[in-house]
Specification:
Length: about 130
């Protein structure tokens, strides 16, 4: 995977533009209010030159770019991380989040923070064995 030249300059500019998002708010409302779909399209064109899209881009954004941006002082970015699209999740996790009633696709879509919460639960469960 190759990132487009100039991606770091884009990321630095983006860091100053990202909104502060409340973690406890509704994911659906947060995404709509702050234009996550538009931001996602900007990322497709700027980061990967149109080659990195969909769930792969979401994973790159949450696991790669946002942690880099979090090193910049002055803005809280955990809300964006939490409410961002789930990324490359195993189908069993998506099914598990739905089966547990955590995500239903309508009022509470799959998001990165809830998927990471499931991962933490699975790790804790495994370590208790």
């Amino acid at each position: 995977m190759r990132l487009r030249p100039g991606w770091m300059e884009f990321a630095e500019k983006l860091a100053d533009e990202l909104p502060v998002v409340e973690i406890g708010a509704s994911t659906r409302r947060v995404r709509r209010r702050h234009g996550f779909a538009r931001l996602r399209e900007r990322l497709v064109g700027t980061l990967g030159g149109g080659l990195i899209k969909g769930t792969r881009l979401d994973t790159l954004f949450c696991d790669g770019l946002l942690p880099l941006l979090a090193t910049r002082p002055g803005r809280e970015r955990s809300g964006i991380w939490f409410h961002w699209f789930g990324g490359d999740l195993p189908p069993a996790w998506i099914g598990g989040l739905r089966e547990l009633g955590v995500c239903d696709g309508r009022t509470q879509p799959i998001c990165h923070g809830l998927a990471q919460g499931l991962l933490a639960y699975l790790i804790a469960s495994e370590s208790r064995r």
